Amino acid sequence: MSPESLSAEMISAIVTQGVPKRVLCKSSFGDASIYEALRMHADGKKLLEILSIVQARALICLNNIVSALDTDLLGGEEALGQLWSSLFSLTFATESKVFVSDEEDFLEAATGVLRSIMDKLASLREPQCITAEHVTILCRFTAEASCEAVKVKLISILGFIGKMAAKKDNVLEVLKSLGTVLRDIIVGQHSLWLICEALDAIFDTFADGPLVNTAADSIGLLVNLQQLVPVLKSRIKSERRTLGDHFL
């Protein structure tokens, strides 16, 4: 979705009615005991499946809205920060398996919104809503995620954070944490799609900054990149026909 695809009336309605905040509120989980009670009955299970589908679609809708509207129309840095914090808690601070029928669909939709929010925040000078705890959680989830689509979105988020962190002179441990996760992906047994996304994030994070060389040296990033070159060339040559839309 692009801003050009939305009429002025629709944009006005989205902004004045606070649609992003409302969508997120309606997408929040209820009391766990209610979910457990519904699972005891066949009709309850069907209801929860439908609820999960609607929730994922609502988050996809929210992703489209965030992507399409300018930061000012979304309420500026403060509103985006609140949206980020609320959605982050919804996605990572709860045991989503208890609440959703398809965890992968939920995580893919939720991380898609987080990536779009981070894209907006990255254009600001120094967003205050991203904490060290957020970085730690994102690094862990990125390393552990089994769904490629979710992992790619998380990698992209780390790339945005890394690019912002690289400009500072007091975030060595953050850069090392980000770099370690991304390094392990490029040297691991992953698809070319994932490896290339991780490389993009590495280049964004370690392109320039007062501490990037120190951080890269401490995790042996350059050595791993040098060792990756011949392997990557060979894999691209042998797998290019199977890459489909990911080849470029």
Concise synopsis of the structure shown:
With 248 residues, this protein is mainly α. It is 71% helix and 0% strand. The radius of gyration is 20 Å and the shape is globular.
Descriptive account of the structure:
The chain has 248 residues and is mostly helical. It has twelve helices and no strands. The protein has helices at residues 8-16, 19-27, 32-38, 42-68, 76-92, 103-121, 132-144, 148-165, 172-187, 192-206, 212-218, 221-239.
What proportion of the residues is helical, as a percent range?
A: over 70%
Tally of contiguous helical segments = 12
Number of strands: 0
Largest sheet: none
- The poorly predicted ranges are none
**Beta-strand percentage?**
under 5%
Q: What is the CA-CA span between the terminal residues?
A: 22 Å
Q: Keyphrases for this structure?
A:
12 helices, 248 residues, mainly alpha
Which helices and strands appear, and what pairs or packs with what?
Elements: H1 8-16, H2 19-27, H3 32-38, H4 42-68, H5 76-92, H6 103-121, H7 132-144, H8 148-165, H9 172-187, H10 192-206, H11 212-218, H12 221-239
